Amino acid sequence: MKRTLPAVLLTATLALAAGCDGSGGGDASQANAASGPITIWLSNNSEELAWGKAMVESWNAAHADQKITAQEIPAGKSSEEVIGAAITAGNAPCLIFNTAPAAIPQFQKQGGLVALDEFDGAAQYITDRTGDTAEQYKSPDGKFYQMPWKSNPVMIFYNKDIFAKAGLDPEKPALSTYDEFLTAARKIKSSGAAPAAIYPAPSSEFFQSWFDFYPLFAAETDGKQLVADKKAQFNSPEGQKVADFWKTIYAEGLAPKELYNGDSFADKKAAMAIVGPWAVAVYGDKVKWGAVPVPTSTGKPAEQVKTFSDAKNVAMYSACQNRATAWEVIKFATSQEQDGKLLDATGQMPLRKDLQTAYPDYFTQNPAYKQFADQAARTVEVPNVPNSVAIWQAFRDAYSESVIFGKQPVADAFSGAATKVDELASGS
Amino acid sequence: MTAAPIEGGVRRNRVAAFFGRHPVGMILSAPYAVYIAVVFAYPLGFSLWISFHDYFFAAPGAVVDHPFVGFDNYKAVLTDPAVRQSFGNIGIFLIINVPLTAALALILAVALNRVVHARTFLRVAFYVPYVTASVAVVGVWLFLFNSGGLVNSVLGPFAPDPSWLVNEGLAMPVIALFVVWKQLGFFILLYLAALQNVPNELYESASVDGANGWNKFWSITVPAVRPATALVVILALITGANLFTEPYLLTGGGGPNGASTSPVLLMYQRGLQQGEPDFAAALGVILVIGVLIVALINRRFIEGKD
């Protein structure tokens, strides 16, 4: 008996495990046609939450039989992990208004997403609203598993007071070429105006490259993604130039190599930061800021510079039973009226092709946001490829080793990472 | 006509053999057995199964294949340089953490055992870091060990460059020291309990024989608390094998350059962040086997054959 009981337990365990293969029933077409109450998750950013609650209230007032129940995304290390767990558990909500494009391939592979193309006119609606940029949000199978919603085109924010203290022009600083940027950074550091010229997070998380390497790579290459046609694009002369720029920043101590716990720009520990317009509301009156496009090696004119979008989109999850309502809610929440309210409440840029002409009053009253709207028309998204997160992690590891810590020549590190990324992008 | 009573008797004997002489014991232990089965045996068996299949987490209802891949996941784990680096990092951690934990805990327990005044205050003082959430105390260490921190201010020109937590050679030792400091209170308590069982007569006899303090400590105290030492070493080893929060928070996700990545941190990154639970499960199984081997070696050398 002493031996039989553990053996029975183990066998039962393995049998149960083998049985848990995720297969089961479910009528997708029935769910696609069904209307009724739905749940949605919203970001926990206070401005966005306020917009979301107002949007829900507005919908619920007109749809008594199809009420939305909204809540913040449950707390977790990252939204992507929480959503991934919810997909596996089968309790994801119908819609999440904070789905990161980088996570889409993984959620799709999990069978957690509904292709929006399954709804009449959906693909047309997306393209009409978003324009050519919508193409970046298509999955490799040609379908939309995400509704492009809003972007935060990242730019170089600078602190006008620190710049003035360092003897730099606070109104029109020369920051468009790598040389100009480095000269300004050196002046900030040597003058003691701030402990750091710029302070991107030097940590190893896969997404950190979106706020140092990737915006400059997008600008330098006129809009190339990290991966195209299943091939890594960063192991190129342009990628090397961007890496060398950042390597100089770290080697000269213009950016610290250790993590700052907090917002270094808001805390005035750094004179510059790479962030999107969401930060404007956060900085408030704490920092007198200005913003310029990210630099390029040759100093491209501002109107030609591309950057990383830092977009968050709306996705419909396969656990949803009333998908017809969910699709109507997507259309409602991304309508011109609701996009205008989002812009007004958060300063984030709805992913609309007609952004500036749709809200002329807003941009007249808030001229500071106009440059972000300009920039929003020239954004580059993360590639929508298999193993997306693993690809970013492989890149980050190589970047960290060669650029931040200088332990390996950039060319060698990038070449090794490119081989790995090619393998991952091919789906193996 | 006589068959029935015999059959009944046999059945009763079988039932008695199954439930033992005190069937109520089975009932009382059943909740714990269920708990072990659900919380320990099932996940362990499941992860073992995952490690031999091409597996990823899928939505209920999603039709996905999980083909048997034999030892492919294990091969991937064993040939991954990041895994080798993480085990190397843990090796450095254990070499620093385990002996230091055992030695400091014993020395401080002996000292605390002799203290007459403020005994409770001192015991609590050592115990507070253990019961404080890692996330909170990590903040204190970041304040101490970042480049502009207190330690570097005191060291001045002697401060390491790059600083402690971004220095590949120093990041793991700093984490090991942090964990020694954090866990010490618990291990001191274990030793304090063990010290209560050491007969005072032994020390008195040794004094009569002319033994000094060191001789008494080395010849009486250390052998007497050997079972506690074995427990301390095993628990410190398990802490090391499970290391996650400290490198994650102190060094920003396993930096610098992977020098503080632990196998569990890698399991989290590969299994949850990068959607490769099969790889993570194989790594977990290897980690469990590694800990079992080290625990067996520990039993052999520290606990002895008795």
Describe the secondary-structure layout:
The complex is a heterodimer of chains A (428) and B (306).
Chain A: H1 4-19, H2 28-33, E1 38-42, H3 46-62, E2 68-72, H4 79-89, E3 95-99, H5 104-109, H6 122-130, E4 147-151, E5 155-159, H7 160-165, H8 178-191, E6 196-198, H9 213-220, E7 227-228, E8 231-232, H10 237-251, E9 270-275, H11 278-283, E10 289-292, E11 307-308, E12 312-316, H12 323-333, H13 336-346, E13 349-350, H14 355-358, H15 360-365, H16 370-376, E14 379-380, H17 388-404, H18 410-425
Parallel strand pairs in A: 1-2, 1-3, 6-9, 11-14
Antiparallel strand pairs in A: 3-12, 4-12, 4-13, 5-9, 5-10, 7-8
Chain B: H1 3-19, H2 23-51, H3 72-78, H4 81-114, H5 119-131, H6 134-145, H7 150-155, H8 171-195, H9 200-208, H10 213-224, H11 226-241, H12 245-250, H13 263-273, H14 277-303
Helix pairs in contact in B: 2-14, 3-14, 4-8, 4-11, 5-8, 8-11, 11-14, 13-14
Family (chain A): Belongs to the bacterial solute-binding protein 1 family.
GO molecular function, one term (chain A): maltose binding
Keywords (chain A): Signal, Sugar transport, Transport
Descriptive notes:
The complex is a heterodimer of chains A (428) and B (306). With 428 residues, chain A is of the alpha/beta class. In chain A, 43% of the residues lie in helices and 12% in strands. Chain A contains 18 helices and 14 strands. Chain A has a 6-stranded mixed beta sheet with strand order 2-1-3-12-4-13, sandwiched between helices. Chain A has a 4-stranded mixed beta sheet with strand order 6-9-5-10. In chain A, strand 1, helix 3 (46-62) and strand 2 (68-72) form a beta-alpha-beta unit. The longest helix of chain A has 17 residues, at 46-62. Chain A is globular and about 65 Å long. The model of chain A is unreliable at 1-11 and 13-25 (pLDDT under 50). Chain B is mainly α and 306 residues long. Chain B folds into 2 domains: 3-51, no CATH class; 72-303, MetI-like fold (Orthogonal Bundle). Chain B has 14 helices and no strands. In chain B, helix 13 (263-273) packs antiparallel against helix 14. The longest helix of chain B is centred in the first third of the chain and has 34 residues, at 81-114. Classes of the chains: A alpha/beta (428), B mainly alpha (306). At the A-B interface, helix 1, helix 4 and helix 17 of A face helix 2 and helix 13 of B.
